[in-house]
Amino acid sequence: MKKSDIAMIILIASISVLIAYFVAKGIFGGGSSSSQTVKTIDPIDSRIVAPDPSIFNSNAINPSVEVQISGTSQPGAK
């Protein structure tokens, strides 16, 4: 290869690296240096609080109780 061919390959490679750098920075963006504030939660304690009666109805159907349906037949069923 001639010296001009090697120089052309180096030039094209360096331009390709620069283009790839700016494209990647445009797609992924740069790092943000601004500070953010987050909400913190209260620590968990061992107290047990009674549930709110307006939300937890004591007369509601308990879905964890197994229900057996037997001995019923529909009219016309064989």
Description:
It is a single chain. The protein is mostly helical. It contains one helix and no strands. It has one helix spanning 3-28.
Number of strands: 0
Shape: elongated
Oligomer category = single chain
| Secondary-structure class | mainly alpha
User: How would you state the average pLDDT, rounded?
Assistant: 82
> CA-to-CA gap between the ends?
91 Å
Poorly predicted spans: none
The ordered H/E elements are H
What is the CA-atom radius of gyration, in angstroms? 36 Å
Report the sheet with the most strands, covering strand number, pairing sense and barrel closure: none
Strand content: under 5%
Helix content: 25-40%
If helices are DSSP runs of H or I spanning 4 or more residues, what is the number of helices? 1
SSE inventory with pairings:
Layout: H1 3-28
Properties at a glance:
about 80 residues; mainly alpha; about 35% helix
Task: Give a short overview.
With 78 residues, the chain is mainly α. It is built from 1 helix and no strands. The model has no long low-confidence stretch (mean pLDDT 82).
